[in-house]
Design brief:
The complex is a heterotrimer of chains A (328), B (277) and C (316).
Chain A: H1 22-65, H2 68-71, H3 85-116, H4 119-131, H5 137-162, H6 181-206, H7 209-217, H8 222-233, H9 235-251, H10 254-259, H11 277-284, H12 291-327
Chain B: E1 26-37, E2 40-51, E3 55-59, H1 66-73, E4 83-91, E5 94-95, H2 103-109, E6 110-113, H3 125-129, H4 143-156, H5 160-163, H6 176-189, E7 194-198, H7 206-219, E8 224-228, H8 232-238, E9 241-246, E10 249-255, H9 256-261, H10 266-272
Parallel strand pairs in B: 3-8, 3-9, 6-7, 7-8
Antiparallel strand pairs in B: 1-2, 1-4, 4-5, 9-10
Helix pairs in contact in B: 4-6, 6-7
Chain C: H1 25-74, H2 80-84, H3 98-128, H4 133-147, H5 150-165, H6 170-195, H7 198-206, H8 211-239, H9 266-274, H10 279-312
The chains are: A mainly alpha (328), B alpha/beta (277), C mainly alpha (316).
Chain lengths: 328, 277, 316
């Protein structure tokens, strides 16, 4: 072979053969594999750690109170008696309020954006709605304290209790000082809306054209097409989005702590203050008196962990199922 | 030699036509090579030789296994999960599938150019061409040597005049034909013993195609070239020997002239006369 | 079926009247019914467009209100002092949140040091081992980690780091925040790596690149802009988190950048000032919130802009 064509590599095939340089590439590949696998395993390991640490810290309280921990309303740190029922009740009620208010709005936005809005409007409005998710919780809380709550206290609550018939029920009774289940639920609604809206928008846009065209060909109006063909098809995805919103509402801490009043009480009235599991931990942990108190708070955290696990798992499964169906 | 049949005018070359068959030694040889994707056999017991300073073309209808065969020659086939190979492939007498042989070493001696140009988008033109040199470990050339090699490779692929002033620019800014020639330069920079080309002009315009064909014809001066193509005229233009494959089998393998004028197998004749394709 | 019994459900357009005779009374009645049905349905359609449009309006209102109020209440307190001074004791005028901003920066760095390598490494693993059981499990668990309430992250960090160490530290907060970054970074890294075409990998392998070199030097480098964007988005999310910091970093009224001491943080400081009884601290809280939202918004916009131009060049 000519000089110019001599291979650069010293292990020329015609003299020393293609020697196996096991060092270098093979070792590099093994190290790389081990490292990426190791990093990937960090995630399950981290979750395991979280579960173990919180669980172990919660165990003394759970052992001391048993199932009653979830049903008792007595929370008396000096006497080491703890019952998380008000916090659980408050979490459920505030989340329900949030979902009841946010879901129709979110669906309306999603339908508007995916079906009615002209394309130039779609991006900006979607962006604005999604931006709600980027606002930190503490900023919501700040705005809630100084803007939303006075508004509720001075205008909305008197209006609600002044309504004929339903204004007299226990739901709207009691003094309206500001911190209340209603204000917490309302701020949660705003915080949860972008999540429900984003997921709903996605599943609605993923509904195949054939479904829409079939309805239109039968003579349906646009709205009928949406209500009868598109939304039912996307139903499980939308439900998944709602449950996802629920998951977020359950775990929301700062804004709720700043608005709910932080009182261990179960009240029927929406005007009364209360507690949620997350805000209970946030409020009392720093000044917890004694090990059992801390353990009780850890137990609340453990309950919160499990509940959000189940709810989020359910949401993911629903959304995943829809994406699988539309793909096939 | 047999009377030359009329064919498209050869690109001007300064190289003498190849000597009589048998004069050049065999550099790459496949023996009873079979390639599988899981249980599907894509290449069936193919035995074929590739000689030094020759261009060998492999033609056949799509799905006949020609690309798979090519990819077995530099151990790229095994990068696909569930891929399997049986039989041997020898490079200068060494079985590249033998135990203890590192596929990476094989690929440094057997270069490949793909159908679609794939310059590395984050590297400049110069770094793209030098990409194969950066991994040579203790054989890695110095900066000055690398620059020299890059210039050399770009000149061979007729790119030097077009890019010499913008070697630091991103490779993505080149046209499709230029990018493909860049990929060929990149493969040539490591001075492989064998160059494999998998339908290199399939996505190029006619002018770029012609430039690449001229290049391929020239490369026979100092290396073994194997080119897979679905374009029979291209095979006729650039190659010395041609192999015809059908459903994984090697049907006929002979001098290009002979295959296109007096093929011995009926299937070959049916293919080259366009009765199927 | 006769004209006296029009079918229910989707209504077919009324048949044109027979030319040879005047339309019968019954035919005219049926046509009239259909017209009103269609008319009513059209009205419903328009109303629903209005309703959904109204929903969109109502949904964007809180954002507008919040931003407007932030500007109104916070802008006046933004001055040079705000960015350079630490808070003054309550009752005294002036002061700023400089230590909180520094603290947030320190926390972001600590969180990134923990969360980025794991997130990028896991993302690489998921992208290159799709379909394996471990990859599917890790992906699912990453989503689970993402949905974990931030307060749970905080009590975990307390139990795991603060309690054994016996004191509140910036490190504990950094770990909690880093753990929250991991799922976000993992997901965007996986997506960005998957977008890199297989042909690029093959070109590198054919040149003689080993697998690790192909992954790191060719694929990762190509996907890097997208990964960096994802990392920035994750950072903007954790920059505003307060709950994990409540009992890990505690907050600090003075200058501190040490990982082994309590540290101030912007969202934490905003919280403390918001619930304090002093007006002057409320004003600082508004200013802090404005700065925080400004940072978050800028990063969100930048990320959106970056990914939009990427897809403009023909992404998937």
């Amino acid at each position: 072979m000519s000089e110019a064509a001599r291979p650069l590599v010293t292990t020329r095939p015609d003299d020393s053969g293609i020697a196996a340089r096991i060092e270098g590439s093979a070792i590099g590949d093994s190290v790389y594999r081990w490292m990426t696998t190791g990093f990937a395993l960090c995630i399950p390991i981290l979750l395991l750690f979280i579960a173990l640490e919180v669980g172990a810290a919660a165990w003394p309280a759970l052992k001391a109170f048993g199932f009653g921990f979830l049903t008792s309303s007595e929370w008396d740190p000096p006497h080491n008696i703890f019952g998380a029922a008000p916090a659980i009740y408050g979490t459920i009620v505030s989340s329900i309020i949030a979902l009841v208010i946010a879901t129709p709005l979110a669906l309306g936005v999603a339908i508007f954006l995916s079906e009615f809005a002209p394309s130039w409007l779609r991006q900006p409005v979607a962006f604005l709605v999604d931006l709600l998710a980027a606002i930190p919780s503490v900023v919501y809380g700040l705005w809630g304290i100084f803007v939303l709550q006075p508004l509720l206290r001075d205008h909305v609550m008197p209006f609600l209790s002044g309504l004929p018939l339903i204004g007299q029920t226990s739901v709207f009774e009691g003094p309206a000082y500001g911190p209340s289940m209603l204000s917490a639920g309302l701020i949660l609604a705003i915080m949860v809306l972008p999540f429900i809206s984003a997921v709903s928008r996605e599943v609605l846009m993923a509904v195949p054209r054939s479904q829409r065209e079939a309805a239109l060909a039968l003579g349906a109006t646009k709205w009928e097409m949406i209500a009868d063909a598109v939304v039912p098809y996307a139903r499980s995805g939308i439900v998944g989005g709602i449950i996802l919103g629920l998951g977020r509402a359950l775990g929301e801490t700062m804004a709720v702590t700043m608005l709910i009043g932080n009182v261990h009480k179960i009240s029927a009235s929406l005007f009364a203050p209360g507690y949620t599991m997350a805000s209970l931990i946030a409020n009392e942990f720093a000044e917890a008196t004694g090990d059992l108190h801390i353990s009780a708070l850890m137990a609340v955290g453990a309950v919160l962990f499990v509940v959000t696990l189940i709810v989020n798992g359910l949401a993911r499964w629903l959304v995943w199922r829809v994406s699988r169906e539309t793909r096939s | 030699m047999a009377t030359e049949p009329p064919r498209a005018p050869r690109p001007t070359a300064t190289v003498a036509p190849p000597a009589a068959a048998g004069a050049e030694r065999i550099r790459l040889e496949a023996t009873a090579l079979s390639a599988f994707f899981a249980s599907a056999e894509a290449v069936r017991g193919v035995s074929i030789t590739f000689r030094d300073r020759e261009v060998t073309a492999i033609i056949g209808p799509s799905g006949c296994g020609k690309s798979t065969l090519l990819r077995c020659l530099n151990r790229m086939h095994e990068t696909v999960p569930t891929a399997r190979v049986s039989g041997t492939v020898s490079l200068d007498g060494q079985d590249i599938y033998a135990r203890g042989i590192n596929a990476i070493e094989v690929r440094r001696h057997v270069g490949m150019v793909f159908q679609r140009p794939t310059p590395f988008p984050t590297m400049s033109i110069r770094d793209n061409v030098a990409a194969g040199l950066q991994i040579l470990g203790r054989d890695k050339p110095s900066r000055a040597e690398t620059d020299h090699i890059v210039e050399d490779a770009l000149k061979r692929t007729a790119l030097w005049d077009e890019v010499s002033t913008r070697l630091k620019d991103s490779a993505v800014g080149l046209s499709g034909g230029q990018q493909q020639r860049l990929c060929i330069a990149r493969a040539l920079a490591t001075r492989p013993a064998v160059l494999l080309l998998d339908e290199p002009t399939a996505s190029l315009d006619p002018i770029s195609t012609q430039k690449v064909e001229e290049l391929v014809y020239e490369l026979r001066r100092d290396m073994t070239v194997v080119i897979v193509t679905h374009n029979m005229q291209q095979a006729a233009r650039v190659s010395d020997r041609t192999a015809f494959m059908l459903t994984g089998e090697l049907v006929e393998f002979t001098a290009t002239n002979t295959l296109f004028t007096t093929p011995s197998d009926a299937r070959t004749e049916a293919y080259i006369t366009g009765r199927f394709g | 079926m006769t004209l006296t019994n029009p079918p229910h459900g989707p209504v077919s357009p009324p048949r044109p009247p027979v030319r040879t005779a005047r339309p019968s009374v019954m035919q005219r009645a049926a046509a009239e019914r259909t017209r009103t049905t269609i008319g009513r349905r059209r009205i419903v359609n328009v109303v629903m467009v209005g309703v959904t449009c109204g929903a969109a309006l109502v949904a964007t209102l809180p954002l507008v209100f919040i931003l407007a109020h932030l500007l109104k209440a916070g802008a006046s307190s933004i001055n040079w002092d705000f960015f350079t001074q630490i808070p003054k004791p309550p009752g005294e005028a002036g002061g700023g949140m400089a230590n909180a901003m520094v603290g947030t920066l320190v926390l972001i760095l600590a969180a990134s040091a923990f969360g980025l390598p794991i997130g990028i490494g896991a993302g690489l693993y998921l992208a290159e081992n799709r379909g394996t059981h471990l990859a599917n499990a890790v992906r699912f668990l990453s989503d689970v980690l993402n949905g974990l309430p931030s307060i749970v992250m905080g009590i975990f960090a307390w139990q795991f780091l603060v309690k054994p160490m016996g004191k509140f530290t910036a490190l504990a907060g950094g770990i909690a925040l880093g753990a929250m970054m991991i799922p976000l970074v993992t997901r965007t890294t996986e997506e960005m790596i998957r977008i890199v075409p297989v042909s690029l990998r093959e070109a590198a392998l054919a040149l003689g690149y080993s697998r690790w070199r192909t992954s790191l030097i060719v694929v990762l480098r190509t996907a890097l802009p997208g990964i960096v964007t994802g990392a920035l988005v994750a950072v903007s999310r954790i920059a505003g988190e307060t709950a994990p910091l409540l009992f890990t970093v505690l907050g600090n009224q003075f200058w501190s950048a040490s990982l082994r001491e309590p540290i101030a943080a912007l969202p934490l400081q905003i919280f403390n000032f918001a619930i304090s009884p002093y007006d002057q601290q409320h004003a600082l809280a508004w200013a802090g919130a404005l700065v925080l939202i400004g940072i978050v918004l800028i990063i969100s916009l930048a990320a959106r802009f970056a990914t939009r131009s990427r897809f403009g060049r023909g992404g998937d």
